TrEMBL record:
Protein name according to UniProt: Pumilio homolog 11-like
Gene: LOC101491338
PROSITE patterns tied to this protein: PUM (PS50302), PUM_HD (PS50303)
Biological process per Gene Ontology, one example term: regulation of translation
Domain PUM-HD intervals: 86-430
Pfam family of the protein (one): PUF
PANTHER family: PUMILIO HOMOLOG 15-LIKE, RNA BINDING PROTEIN PUMILIO-RELATED
Sorted UniProt keywords: Repeat, RNA-binding, Translation regulation
């Protein structure tokens, strides 16, 4: 039989119950019991925790230090509470535990913070402790979440505690913010996992808003640069990159943009990445955007034929950047027939005909007209749209010459599914010339 059942041991919880206020009448003649904490407070010893008869060591310690029996008993109560939490007991048990904690703030020192943060009630309790502004409580919370920072950021409840820590600038010190920031970027893979997570991306964007130390910001920028490709190929990750460009000073933006330019083709050929590159082109200004456009133009052939990369080239064409379209035509010259027959690249050729200067458009039209595969273009499922766009974008001598060339192939086009469309447009254009 355990010594804890001895009659000379003082049980603080039982003592509280013994001294509870008596029953008192109320106006409606019903009777209530005024309890100290809650109407459902449960003796913590009944929680699903290790039984005392299984812990001979603790029992022996108690016998050896009988003069401090109450202190040892309290210590063992704390161990029971921690074990109950980590065993994921029923929510009602958690409710009782937090009622108990509200009257015993020293529980913050018992190593429960990360586990509490991953419970809804526990997370609220910890946030309230931060709002109270007690330096020691805040120090305990920050020090204990540090080693499990990445896990908490991506947790449905834990992420709110991390947000609270970074937002509480009047309570949390700059050194504590910097310490957590360096822990966050200490592992590239864990940082990436945070940034692409549904909860993590929101927290990360908020963290970027609250980092004020220049050196810390520089190190965060470098860390983001190391995982830039993976971030830009993920929707959540791309928001983190765009947040960097929105908030960072120019010298730090350039670090990220240099990585974007270096990996432009890789990113632009990705389903998500092609959209992110277009956002960059829309929001970035200065020398960085020039470098990005030049890189896209130099890789225009590869991108034009790609199922996603072609959208990036089209976007640059529609931007009407000075000399950009002329440079694209120079890069693609000699390959316009091939591009016209490609499902994706034919859209690029059409946009060039539509948005570039007339003399530049004439270069494309004449190259296709002079090709021995001209008829193939007219009859192609994609090439016929290029031919129709050419008829719309040309005028004068070049338009008449193109119309006559198409009509001369009347016999091969009039009964063809795609060719007859081009033939009909050429006939109509010739009448208005």
């Amino acid at each position: 039989m355990n010594n804890f059942c001895s009659s000379d041991v003082v049980d603080p919880l039982m003592e509280e119950h013994e001294h509870s206020p008596p029953l008192q009448p109320v106006q409606d003649k019903t009777v209530i019991h005024q309890q100290l904490y809650s109407s459902h407070v449960q003796d913590v010893r009944t929680l699903n925790a290790p039984r005392m008869e299984d812990n001979n060591t603790l029992s022996n310690n108690y016998n050896d230090k009988s003069s401090n029996g109450l202190l040892n008993y309290s210590e063992m109560n704390m161990m029971r509470i921690k074990a109950a939490i980590e065993a994921n007991v029923h929510k009602m048990h958690f409710h009782h535990i937090y009622n108990y904690m509200n009257n015993r703030p020293s529980l913050l020192k018992r190593g429960l913070v990360p586990v509490m943060a991953m419970d809804e009630l526990g997370c609220r309790y910890l946030q309230a402790k931060i709002d109270e502004g007690n330096f020691l409580d805040v120090e305990i919370i920050v020090s204990e979440v540090k080693d499990r920072l990445h896990q908490l950021i991506t947790h449905p409840f834990g992420n709110y505690l991390i947000l609270k820590i970074f937002q509480a600038k009047d309570i949390v010190t700059m050194d504590q913010i910097n310490s957590l920031s360096f822990m966050l970027i200490s592992n590239d893979q864990k940082l990436l996992d945070v940034c692409i997570h549904d909860h993590g991306t929101r927290v990360m964007q908020n963290i970027l808003e609250n980092i004020e130390n220049t050196f810390t910001l520089y190190e965060v920028t470098r860390a983001v640069g190391r995982i830039i490709v993976a971030l830009m190929k993920n929707i959540n990750g791309s928001y983190v990159v765009l947040q960097c460009l929105k908030l960072f000073p120019p010298e730090f933006k350039d670090i990220i943009l240099d990585e974007v330019v270096r990996n432009c083709v890789n990113v632009a050929r990705d389903k998500v990445g092609c959209s992110v590159i277009q956002k960059f082109l829309r929001h970035v200004v200065g020398n960085a955007i020039t470098l990005l456009i030049v890189e896209i133009i130099s890789k225009a052939m590869v991108l034009a034929e790609d199922s996603y990369g072609n959208y990036v080239v089209q976007y640059v064409i529609k931007m009407m950047w000075p000399r950009a379209n002329q440079m694209i035509i120079e890069v693609l010259r000699g390959k316009f027939v091939r591009l016209s027959l490609n499902k994706h690249a034919s859209n690029v050729v059409e946009d060039l005909l539509r948005y570039c200067e007339y003399n530049d458009a004439a270069v494309i039209v004449e190259e296709i007209m002079r090709s021995r595969d001209f008829l193939t273009v007219l009859k192609d499922p994609f090439g016929n749209y290029v031919a129709q766009r050419a008829l719309q974008c040309t005028k004068g001598r070049l338009c008449r010459e193109l119309c006559h060339l198409i009509i001369s192939k009347n016999r091969k086009l009039r009964n063809h599914l795609y060719g007859k469309r081009v033939l009909a447009m050429a006939t109509a254009c010739l009448k208005v010339q």
